[in-house]
Write a structure and sequence with these properties.
90 residues, single chain, mainly alpha, 5 helices
């Protein structure tokens, strides 16, 4: 799903989504009348997008942590910090 699709499915106006994506208006007459950045109207849409992205990243992070917890200790790769710490002690 593209960000444009997401905006449409969430009920945001097409012109808000296009401005948020920094798309230019192809029609020169229409472009001449687009004199505002619609920032105040775009702000809630951009925050909803950010909340969705950060929520998705958190779910991936939690899933990876759960997978790591389920790996037997003998199969875990040592952390770089562990390797560096051992080198300093040698």
């Amino acid at each position: 799903m593209t960000r444009r699709d997401w905006a449409s499915e969430q009920g945001y106006r097409r012109d808000l989504a296009e401005r948020a994506l920094a798309h230019t208006v192809a029609n020169p007459v229409e472009a001449a009348y687009h004199r505002t950045d619609l920032l105040d109207e775009r702000r809630p849409m951009m925050q909803a997008w950010a909340d969705g992205v950060s929520g998705a990243l958190m779910r991936v992070y939690e899933r990876q942590n759960q997978q790591i917890k389920n790996v037997p200790l003998s199969n875990k790769t040592p952390l770089l910090s562990d390797k560096l710490g051992r080198q300093g002690r040698q």
